Amino acid sequence: MAYREEYADGASEVRPNLRRTEAKQADKAPSAPAPAEPRPERKFRKRPLIFAVLAVALSFGAYEGYGWWENGRFVVWTDDAYVQGDITVLAAKVSGYVTDVAVTSNQSVKAGDLIAKIDDGDYRLALRSAQDKLATQQSTIARIGRQIEAAQSAVAQAAAQIEASRADAERAASDFARQQQLAQSDFASRARFDQAKADRDRTEAAVKSAEAALAAAKANVDVLSAQRTEAERVASELQTAVAKAERDLSFTEIRAPVDGVVGNKAVEVGTYVQPGARLAAIVPLATVHVDANFKETQLAALHPGQKVHIEVDAYPDRDITGSVESISPASGSVFSLLPAENATGNFTKIVQRVPVRIAVDPKVADEGILRPGLSVVVSVDRRDRPATRIAQRNG
């Protein structure tokens, strides 16, 4: 049997009556047998596999539980830890154009090696000027010294003149006394008496003049000594100026203060630098350490001297050891730029973290594989009792 099907565009198609055809075929087809029930032995085949999986899981759980009971529960660890180093940032002390850069990035240097050089022409001229001024001042000091010697000679001459004047004064006084006695007895003329008196007065005045000359000579020595002291102090100031000029000249050569590796180089030949301008950084890889930020609830188990196991993410197959060196006096939030103010508003308690400095095994540090900034995981066995801590407790 068939029927005609017409479409909207006027077309038509003859199709067989599938329902009747399928019904006739179903009547002619033999009946399908009932599905067989699963055999009971297949259920029993899966049980050994399940038991084996459970046994393995229980064994693994028992192993892990035993490890945690024996060691894991005594280990304090944190992954909030990083390799750190005492990085030295090199900066210019004087201004000028860079004429030479003696290193490249990531280059190993020793203390005292030249890093960069600044044009030193102006600083050499300044040093020469300061040295010339100092030389002139030293000549002035030498001249004043000779003047002091001459003044001291004048003092000696004035002292001798006093002695001569005093001798003349004594002679004139004796003559005056003798003429006075003769004048009273009318054995001497009046003119001779007046001459003796005048000689006495003149010699006494000569003594006073000599004494005044001695005082003036001594005062001149004191003045010259003061001038020499002043000149010596000026020379000292000029010596300081020379030392400053020498330091400024030495600052034109930037040298490595420590052993390490050059990093973050920010200077090239021809760059004009100002005082304080950053040139490069020196990273001393041989003295790196680890800063681990432990939770405040873990601090009771940490003490200086404890052994630490360090797992570096960059070297997962290597077990590095260290020791607790010191514990920060305050949590990290206290030293932050904007510390929390818990005395205002609502309060939500947040577990604080305290930085703990961990010293790395010197042999590993000397290899230079630990770079500041690397992420690490540190673990400390709290059963470890440092000898220093026991001694302090017994004391």
Outline:
By secondary structure, this protein is an alpha+beta fold. The chain is built from 6 helices and 16 strands.
Would you write up a description of this structure?
The chain is 46% helix and 24% strand. The chain contains six helices and 16 strands. A six-stranded antiparallel β-barrel has the order 3-12-15-14-13-16. The termini are far apart.
Task: Give a topology summary.
Blueprint: E1 2-6, E2 12-16, H1 18-28, H2 40-70, E3 75-84, E4 88-91, E5 96-101, E6 108-109, E7 114-118, H3 121-184, H4 190-250, E8 253-255, E9 260-263, E10 272-273, E11 278-283, E12 289-295, E13 307-312, E14 315-327, E15 353-360, H5 362-367, E16 375-381, H6 387-394
Antiparallel strand pairs: 1-2, 3-12, 3-16, 4-11, 5-7, 5-10, 6-9, 7-8, 9-11, 12-15, 13-14, 13-16, 14-15
Provide keyphrases for this structure:
alpha+beta, 6 helices, elongated, 24% strand, 395 residues, four-stranded antiparallel β-sheet
What fraction of residues sit in β-strands?
Answer: 15-25%
Radius of gyration: 54 Å
State the helicity in percent bands: 40-55%
**Structural class estimated from helices and strands:** alpha+beta
N-C termini distance: 113 Å
Widest β-sheet, arrangement of strands:
3-12-15-14-13-16
- Output the number of helix runs: 6
Please trace the helix and strand order, writing H or E for each element.
Answer: EEHHEEEEEHHEEEEEEEEHEH
Biggest β-sheet strands, sense, barrel: 6 strands, antiparallel, barrel
Molecular shape: elongated
How many E strands? Answer: 16
> Overall mean pLDDT score?
80
Low-confidence stretches: 389-395
